[in-house]
Amino acid sequence: SSFKEICYLLQLFSKSIDAVGKIADEKTTFNMKKELLIGCGSCLAKRITEYCLFKNGTDDNGGLVFQSTSGSEAPTFHTPVDKSTLAFPFISLQSKPDKNGTPRDPLAHLESLFPGGIGLGLSRMWSLCSEKDMEEEREDRLDAFQRHLQDVCLTTVGIPFAIIDKKNEKRLLADRRQALLHVLESSFDKEQVWMIVVVLIYQLVKSSSVAGKLTIQEVLAHFGREKKIPQVVTEALLKLQMNGCSESDELLSRVKTFGSAKNTKALSALSG
Q: 78: which DSSP letter?
């Protein structure tokens, strides 16, 4: 189901950030976790909340509004997960004014819509994936968000938070690679191309995947340290990443070829 798939993606990307964080500085690691939490995390929170509203028979989302701060809308709870996603939209929970026009606190209003601990669990979920006070807190909110969902998903959604295992991780990586290759084949957008190719090469080398522009940029910044990635590949990606590149058409085609490599040996052959 789409719920399981986005749970798996969150864990896969989180695991990769832990690995990248070992060579990145503390501030960058914090910002990568923040990007994943308020992106993929908020999209998962939106799916869970919408499903609960649907199950509860609540009209018009109960006056709640899911506001995208990145210019693109997140899929609804029943929409299949796009496994080629490079950067998730950032979603914040808002509330329409009451019938008298008085502003309402969205978390308090959310709690009022559901009986017992369901509303409290949903409210805590949104608090954890909100940017508010994130800079001041020492708590690892990304980890806390996942732990919280493990605790409340069964009672809230009716199914447990899906813990990824080796079998599903391998399947998800294969599915993501095919989805990204499909997009790459027809793309002529310079930024989209270099980001996809970085993700694909990272998967070849590390058997994992990343998402989020900041995280993908950080991964590329460390490609020069990776012996399995030819220097000419890294240089071509960095060049395409730069604005105003005069060789963009020829370079774009070459970088796309690097992304099609099936293994590191093939990548070395293509870069020769």
A: T
Of 37, 42, 88, give the one whose Cα is nearest residue 66. Answer: 42
CA distance 209 to 202: 7
What's the pLDDT score for residue 232? 96
Does residue 93 come out as left (phi exceeding 0), alpha (psi in the -120 to 50 range) or beta?
Answer: beta
pLDDT band at 99 (very low <50, low <70, confident <90, very high): confident
- Per residue in 238-252, pLDDT (tens digit) is 999 986 555 578 899
The answer to whether 4 touches 162, Cβ cutoff 8 Å, is: yes
Helix (H) or strand (E) segment spanning residue 81: none
Q: What is the DSSP letter of 145?
A: H
Start-end of H helices in the chain: 2-20, 26-36, 42-55, 106-113, 116-128, 141-157, 166-186, 190-206, 213-221, 231-241, 248-259, 264-270
Whether the Cβ atoms of residue 103 and residue 97 lie closer than 8 Å to each other: yes
**Rounded to an integer, what is the distance from CA 242 to the centroid of its chain?**
24
Tokens 């990304």, residue located: 142
d(CA 205, CA 59): 48
Cα gap 27→7, rounded to integer Å: 25
